[in-house]
């Protein structure tokens, strides 16, 4: 049973092959040779050799509507006339019976038959396929985000395409990974895109007469647009917090005698607290954006609550110092002082720690792709410069007025707020 099976299969195959050969004579051997030519080129259709010599000969073009005579040669040396549509662009060689077609067009594709009368009739059929050369494929990738699906598309605008093959970094891509959508379009699906999909892809489109190849460097992004915004916001929050930290530290480092006071001190405190307040708002926004992308987390929610409290306190301090300095001097209770004294530094530390944590997580996410990390240098430098400018201005005013305008300082000192270390200057 097992022994005769392969034999039977083989014989069936032979029968099928023989049938095919009967149906399509010329599928094998010189008789059915397919000639392929590019549009506009010349094609030599071979005759039947010496058999042609001094015998009558007939060239035909077999179209759907029946055979169409190209020429009828009755032996002898004089050249026969060539019928349209080949008149003027075909040359007949009486010596060997071959026919040269010039400037072939796609409409010339089809079967050509030459028949010779040498006592018995003898004929030969030739398939001609006239093709447009393929144009250069266009290779493009959809925006590729790590973890999301994407695709790379190879598209050929002109010319019949027989095969499209892909390579990645020089290695052939298995046909299972790409799908041929239509003749001139092949798609590589990345479901999902990962870091390993980064590389140089090339797409080779070919037909019988030509091939063209295009390459594309494909990169996968680790960060969505959303996370990039989150990163920018968190970065600005850190910069603001660091700049306002200077506004808090500098007065503490000054010696008792030269300490900044009065109007300037009010501006400095208000600006510093305002900046801390904005840093808290930005940090809170970055946290919310992060949760939108990653889902809620207890740590971030607790952070949001803390930040809300800090935003309210720093906002109150900043506005009160500037708009109602007298109210402020009434807030003399130890508890209020402590709240004020610790709110701003506490907010700075909170913002710096939580933003750094966020940035670190975003960086990890970025490493799932293969692009360069977002360049935040310009953002950092410009926000630092802009936010430090008022501090510099206050510092400059301090240096020009210091020690010169004592009466002005005396007047202004009536508005001064209590601060650890200079309680003695507060009017009662
Ligand atoms: C037939 O003759 C022509 C000119 O004599 C030559 O160019 C051509 O190559 C020949 N054809 C074949 C099939 O030998
Ligand atoms: C492109 O494909 C054609 C046909 O398969 C092949 O002959 C050619 O060498 C290929 N080109 C490259 C660069 O692999």
Automatic annotation (TrEMBL):
It is found in: Membrane. SMART domains: IG, IGc2. InterPro entries: CD2/SLAM_rcpt, Ig-like_dom, Ig-like_dom_sf, Ig-like_fold, Ig_sub, Ig_sub2, Ig_V-set. It holds the Pfam family V-set. It comes from the Eukaryota. The keyword Transferase does not apply. GO terms for cellular component: cell-cell junction; membrane. Residues 137-219 form the Ig-like domain. The keyword Glycoprotein applies. Residues 1-29 form the signal peptide. The chain crosses the membrane at residues 233-252, 264-291, 297-323, 343-364, 376-398. Keywords: Glycoprotein, Membrane, Signal, Transmembrane, Transmembrane helix. PANTHER family: HEPATIC AND GLIAL CELL ADHESION MOLECULE, SIGNALING LYMPHOCYTIC ACTIVATION MOLECULE. This is Ig-like domain-containing protein. It comes from Zosterops borbonicus.
